[in-house]
Amino acid sequence: MSSHVRTVRPNQMVALMERAAHIKKMLEQGEKKPYKDVIDVCWGDPHGAGMKPLTFVRQVLAACIYPQLLDGGNLPMDVKRRAQKLLRWCDGGSVGSYTNTGGILEIVENLAQFISQRDGVPAHPENIWIHPGSQTSLTSILTLLLSSEATPKRGVLVPVPGHSTVPLSVAALGGVAAPYFLDEERGWELRADELRRALASARGVCRPVALYVINPGNPTGHVQSRKSMEEVIRFVAENNLFLLADEVYQGSVYDANSEFVSYKKRLYELGPPLAHTLELASFHSASKGLLGECGLRGGYVELLNMDPVVMPYVERLFHLIPSPPVTGQIALELMVEPPQPGDPSYPLYMHVSPKVHRNRSSDIQSAAPSMLDGSFPFPQETEHTRRTLVDNVKRVLQVLNRLPAISCQPVRGGAFAFPRLHLTTKAIRKAKDAGMQPDMFYCTKLLEDTGVFVSPGCEYGQKEGTYHIRFCIMTPTDTMEELLRRLSAFHLKFMKDLS
């Protein structure tokens, strides 16, 4: 066994996941609890949390998987045309066939067109690869950058709090995950002075080769400003680092004063020489945002300014990855090329009714600019999803920030709320007596007493002496209301009992 795999710490969530599954089974078997079900908001899985799939996406997928549906009269004509086109792109006309390692060429070309339109900067298909999820893409790039034989070890600067699997992947590949802390008191801002501190500290134990950023943030929900992005880009360039930009939540921005800007776009706004020299890998996925198709496993990476000498090795490495699932590739295609005006599916997918404009003026003002600039018209299904998420964010902040001993920074984007628990000395001592981190102890009690399954901040990293919980806000409104009701009652009792 690799010695580096031995250093990967066990996931503390395993026991909590197993307990949640056991409680679900007990409830199904009729065992009485103070609650009727488990509200599982531990993961960024919209459909798992109860959000409904988009009709157009599922109709096209159904027709591709079972082409006999194309012979009936139940599917809109544009769905049939799209499914027929996608099947022509598949070998043998079947989604069960293998594809090119980097994905179906026509879909890759459409991804390039999407990126070009998003950024106003040309994107080239030869720089884009589809993988079974964005995490696979990221791990592949980390494999390229890290080496188990390197002395000193190579390091990657990673955000704290941040995606929990990235430090584990770095460690498993023989690297060092060097933390930089996001500023909670400033809405989880990424600050250049903290990057410089983290780099200087990391150089004592490793040779940093890359910086990993998540925008919009997971689990923090922050959205970077152009100024912050410029500081990051200049820091990366000055220190000869590779920039890894996790941008999978780019379609989920809720704050009126925030907007998603890709790192590629910001880089080109700064112009040469940076635009032509800084090495960048950016990641996106069909799992997040409005589609929420986590289980289909479709993600991609775009590489920018890679050394031509290195590119052949990148291609060799990517050719070792199995053909990405065709259903995931189809989901990506439908994400970047939704129904257009005049298509039969457009009224359901992208319909704007006069009633929406008359009665939702206050809602429109509170929505993010990306929803209002004309490029994303208010739709029926997708507007309902966006509206649900905006309302959930508003309610989460209202409820949690009124509770004693809990505080939540603004959730500007992404899929999660990440409130801070201001636990008492007695609660912390009780947790340590139970052999748990304090926020893990809180989450365990919350699950047992209320059936609400959230994850502890210790899984994502946090400043010493601070404690958090993370939960998904991509849920139906009634689910979120019930979650907040149970969480509020539990929290008040928990803090009273352990005061």
Please summarize what this structure is:
The chain contains 20 helices and 14 strands. By secondary structure, the chain is an alpha/beta fold. Helix 3 packs across helix 4, helix 9 packs across helix 10 and helix 17 runs parallel beside helix 20.
What does this structure look like?
Helices cover 43% and strands 12% of the residues. It has 499 residues and is α/β, with parallel strands linked by helices. It has a seven-stranded mixed beta sheet with strand order 2-8-7-6-5-3-4, sandwiched between helices. Helix 9 packs across helix 10.
What keyword list fits this structure?
five-stranded antiparallel sheet; single chain; about 10% strand; alpha/beta; about 500 residues
- Fraction of residues in helices? 40-55%
Radius of gyration, in Å, reads 23 Å
Largest sheet: 7 strands, mixed
Mean pLDDT: 91
- Order of strands in the sheet with the most strands? 2-8-7-6-5-3-4
Beta-strand proportion: 5-15%
Uncertain ranges: 351-379
Shape, please? globular
- Secondary structure class reads alpha/beta
According to DSSP, the number of beta strands is 14
